[in-house]
Amino acid sequence: MISDPYRQLGLFLLLLFFGTVCAAMIVPYMGFFLVEGLNQDPWVISVYSALAICLTVAANRLFARRIDAGGRVHPLIGVALAGYLLASLAITLAPTLWMVLSLGVLGFGISSSAVSTMFSLGGRMAERADVDRTRFNAYMRATTSTAWMIGPAASFLVADRMGVTSVFHLGLLAALLWLALWWCALPRDITAEPKPPSRDDAETDTARHALWFAAAFVFCLSTAHSMTFTALPLFYVREVGLPGYAPGLAFSVKTFVEVLVIFSTPFVIAHIGLRRALLGTTLLAVVTIQLLAHVQTFGQMLAGGALEGLYYGLYASLGISYIQSFAPRRPAMATAVYWNTLMVSGLLAGPAVGLIAQSYSFQTVIYVASAVALCAAVILAGATRRARQAA
To answer: What's the whole-number mean pLDDT along residues 372-378?
Structure first.
């Protein structure tokens, strides 16, 4: 077993990277596979997503309780990995709707818990190497963002060149690398080392209310981002008239800026403070989404993508630290709340985009997303004022 703590940190991030790549190859691809590969109606996507996300939310809550109670993390990652292997193998052997809605939902739903589990363990890994937790959160967020740059592109390229079921073959190969890293690099006895209870522990009604206010903030801003993310490709191509390759280029610019910005968040927190930085980021999101709704040229699209990467890179790193600050003695629970909130917001954003665009336009969707981001700013400002009054 590897003993050097810095080497362990590197391998931990590599493990997180491959686990996220595996998820990123499947999550955005399943809708395409159901409609184009299995010739199902689009509403089937909602059924699959609802079942898989409900299972992931339940797994995140269950695993978080185990982690906060001092349970070993190694087997929890193994359960998620086994679920991914099961689902990929099952769909490879029998690519049918019922296989997707049974073993596919079960396996991929459980496997999506791996990211939350890894982020819950990240604080302990940082402590072992004497690395600031906020900085390591930024490293983890940059790792996941990089994985999301690679995963979807790889799956759609393979599907286009080799067939729709070939993505699951690729998923199996990637999962074998994930398996090897999990088996060789993650310490068997690693735990999050639960802190003993105290009278000042964040289990009071006030602290719980503050945590749920924080979750409401994350929900609103994540919903605004998900609505924008879903609507922009169709807005650019159908309503603005940009070429078909434009949305992909905009996404690449956004993600590139996002990864760079994530590494700046420890500096931002140290010099501005977590809440001020988050409020500024939220206001930037409101303005950016408004600007995106007014894009008319290719250059404006690229500039808008860079601004989107700026605000989302800051939010991606600041948001999880903000949630964790409300439950210092139950970090795994706070991390699970964060990831579950992201998943629920993503699940609800899709139908909302469809309904608004059907009745009005994709540009209207982006306007509504900006209003939802403004709600997030109001919630955050209110929570900050309450915290000052309580102090």
So the answer is: 96
Hey, what are 355's tokens? Answer: 């309904």
User: Phi-psi region for residue 39, left (φ > 0), alpha (ψ -120 to 50) or beta?
Assistant: left
CA distance 139 to 233: 29
**Three-class secondary structure of residue 95 per DSSP:** coil
According to the model, what pLDDT value does residue 19 have?
93
Q: What one-character DSSP code corresponds to residue 73?
A: S
- Please calculate the CA angle 131-259-254 and round it to the nearest 5 degrees: 160
Q: Residue 386 class from Cβ within 10 Å (0-12 exposed, 13-18 middle, 19+ buried)?
A: middle
CB atoms within 10 A of CB 163: 12
Domains of the chain (ranges; CATH) run 5-185 (1.20.1250.20), 205-390 (1.20.1250.20)
Please give the backbone phi and psi of residue 40, each rounded to the nearest 5 degrees, phi first.
-95, 160
Q: Which of 65, 368, 363 is nearest to 225 (CA)?
A: 368
Cβ partners under 8 Å of residue 221, min gap 6: 282, 285, 315, 319, 372, 373, 376
Which residue, 127, 219, 107, 122, is CA-closest to 172?
107
| pLDDT over threshold 90, residue 36 | no
Distances (CA, A) of 154 to 84, 168, 184, 291: 17, 11, 26, 30
Digit-coded pLDDT (tens) for 57-66 = 889 889 888 8
257 vs 45, more confident: 257
Helices (H), 297-330: 298-324
Return the residue matching tokens 């978080």. Answer: 64
Looking at residue 82, its pLDDT comes to: 95
SS3 244: coil
pLDDT digits (tens, 9 = 90+) for 248-284: 788 778 888 988 898 888 888 888 888 899 999 999 9
- Of 161, 254, 166, 178, the residue nearest 15 (C-alpha): 178
Residue 31 pLDDT level (bands cut at 50, 70, 90): confident
Reported for 295-300, long-range contacts at CB under 8 A and 24+ positions apart, including other chains, are 295/235, 295/236, 295/240, 296/240, 298/242, 298/246
Q: Which two tokens stand for residue 316?
A: 């991606």
